[in-house]
Structures
1.
Amino acid sequence: MPVVGINRHRIVTDGTGVTTLVASHGCPLDCKYCINKEYLKPEMLVACEYMSAEQLYNKLKIDDLYFVATNGGVAFGGGESLLYADFIKEFREICGKRWRIVVETSLNISCENLYKVIPVVDEYSIDIKDINPEIYEAYTGKGNARVIDNLKILIKEKGPENIYIRIPSIKNYNTDRDMAYSVKFLKEMGYSNIETFSYIIK
Ligand code: SF4
């Protein structure tokens, strides 16, 4: 997996306990206010460190005691972490059940990839942008049909616990009313951990 960065000793920001954030390269979306745009350019691939799941485990295990003592572990972010579903699955096989695995995702990935990680991921942090397909496409350049399909799969397979959905206020793209509609839509699907926030636009 092409690793853009590793950030150790994060507390509470990525779920419970002490966490190490592992950011991978690549994302299917082109969000207008993406703060990682520079890192995600194809030419930045040369600056990535290509790691196997075992190499990553060997690098992260220095914090094993912290992870186990605090119910923490590893957060896979990006880019889009679930482009690397096989990697995350293999990483779980290597690290065992002692570490908590969190994924940060837009869920705009194939359902095959989602099904691969469902048995191994403890917690999801999902930025759904906006549930309205027109707003979504205007902001990301892609449709959100896969996001909605994957939300249906996730609630069916996992239930609402340990799934945290974030709905941003996106200046010039959605309104408070649009956000309220997204919240309602998700609640009707059965989700309960829903947070609204504002993007920081530079
Ligand atoms: S999903 Fe995240 S990483 Fe991908 S383009 Fe949008 S803001 Fe950037």
2.
Amino acid sequence: MNAASGAQRPAGGSPGEVLALIRDRPATTRADLARLTGLARSTVSQRVDALIEHGLVSETADRESTGGRPPHRLRLRTEDNVVLGVDVGATHCRIALTDIEGTIVEVREDQLLVSKGPEAVLSHVDRRMHEMLTATNKPLTAVKAIGIGVPGPVEFDTGRAVRPPIMRGWDDYPIPEFFTKRYDLDVLVDNDVNVMALGEHRIARPDVRYLLFVKVGTGIGCGIITERQLHRGAQGCAGDIGHIRVPAAHDQPCHCGNRGCLEGIASGEAMARRLSELGHEASSGRDVVELVAAGNMHALQLVRESGRLIGEVIAGAVNLFNPQTIVFGGVLARVSEHLLAGVREVVHQRSLALAARSLEIVPARTAQDAAVLGAGILAIEHYLESHNVNLRLTAT
Ligand SMILES: [Zn+2]
């Protein structure tokens, strides 16, 4: 590096940083890039030509301009650059093929038990990936990276699940290697609620700086966005609010091995259990949602009560973290008017007035696509990260 040259180069000079300017669109022409980076026109041309050669950028004449020589517009090349976003749930697997701007090209969902184990689930993902590529007429080489969200704690750096309570057979299994052994691409793995938080933030609420994403499904978890970035914590398990103790849970046992956890009393599974004790047919969060939709009063009261219990824990999180927005997703968000009524009631009672004053508590806009979009974005942000782009460009 030529650090002693004394030249003050503005930020944004490397090929990866030039790509970021094109991707985020402050720059759409070579002239824009020269102005924003302070690089010489010839250096800008070198950078742009390399990015075009590597298939990352397209340059087209601007047809809308009239008279004179039309300017050439630069944009991220989306046609043959795609990623796979995978949402592995307790009982389903949803997969989206998205372009590298995060737009869904093709999506598939199947009923599939995560407890069938990693080989069965990941082989299914592999098969679906090939089918989706065929359906969209894209070669395997178009897939640049894979992002996967799984329903359990994940050590992000290695992509391994760590003692996941509901993922039988997955403990310490090297998920990325399943694909990297077969294909030349990177695989990122995170827990489901982190990818949901990322998907909702990037697609629906990119201007929010402090956001909590609470998933209420079979279990209960929370993804944390701080300064627009995912906050994973020291070991990757930040936001595990489902296993905070709540007095109302008494000594109710939980999957995690402890007793008295929020999840053991307020999750979709816990509500289904209580409804079946009352003589209603319910074995999952989905059944609870259907009973509420059918006007079942017990189910409706139980959802509100769960909302209040979750609200107790959320009120503590509001005082600790001071979020702008709390978003609710997961299957129980389908009856969000009842669930959120309970949450709001307690949060506004218990949180500091200052923290609660302009706090929004809302259902997810990305709905059932939050996790696949977020998993795709995890893959995209990794693939397009400036440092990684520079490494790939200098490797060839
Ligand atoms: Zn627990």
